Amino acid sequence: KVHLMLGLIHEKRGDDEAALAEFETVLTRDPENKTARNKRQRLIEKNKSVEELLQDGAAYLKEKKYPLATEVYKEIIKKSPDDYRAYFNLGLSYLSMGLYVEAKDNLSQAILRKELPKAYLMKGICLLKLGEENEANAQFKKVLELDPDNVEVKKYLNN
Questions:
Q1: What span, in angstroms and rounded, lies between the C-alpha atoms of 119 and 91?
Q2: H-helix or E-strand containing 75?
Q3: What is the pLDDT of residue 158?
Q4: Exposure of 14 by Cβ count < 10 A (0-12 exposed, 13-18 middle, 19+ buried)?
Q5: Using CA atoms, how far apart are residues 50 and 84, in angstroms rounded to an integer?
Q6: Confidence grade of residue 147 (pLDDT, cut at 50, 70, 90)
Q7: What is d(CA 56, CA 133) in angstroms, rounded to the nearest whole number?
Q8: Burial call 74-96: b when 16+ CB within 10 Å, e when fewer
């Protein structure tokens, strides 16, 4: 609660960077806090380009702050709906959180925008987790069509 109040005070004073840091602290501890999420969204929209947001999202993924990464990638999609990178990374965030249907859907959106072997691989993994082996194998085979030397996918095809 203290961090939320500090964020609101910083925002009112025009210190967007400090406000953003406080709202992110709140969301790390309470990912469902709507006030912090909405305030954070507005500050991000106001101040950051898609490229900057992609860097932030990548940092959150690396730090395993998946709920924060998810919010960033959703924001990128609002700003730039055809950005395959946002869908791909949103899919990875959901996959890391065990939300396989959401992950699969976003990876499918990434694939519609650009045929990435890694997106097919990740989508295949989601499908395996969902118990859809035949569909998963079709995704894995697509990886090999695009990248015949892909070592990672061969592990899944041999199982």
A1: 9
A2: helix 66-79
A3: 65
A4: exposed
A5: 12
A6: very high
A7: 34
A8: ebbbeebeebbbbbbbbbbbbbe
Residue type, 9: I
Name the amino acid, one letter, at 114: K
Q: Please, are residues 91 and 72 in contact by the beta-carbon 8 Å criterion?
A: no
10-28: pLDDT as tens digits: 999 989 889 999 999 999 9
Please spell the DSSP secondary structure of 6-64, one letter per residue. Answer: HHHHHHHHT-HHHHHHHHHHHHHH-TT-HHHHHHHHHHHHHH--HHHHHHHHHHHHHTT
Count of residues making up the chain: 159
- The H-or-E segment that residue 107 falls in is helix 100-113
Q: What is the pLDDT of residues 57-87, one digit of tens each?
A: 999 999 999 999 999 999 899 889 999 999 9
Q: How many C-beta neighbours within 10 Å does residue 47 have?
A: 12
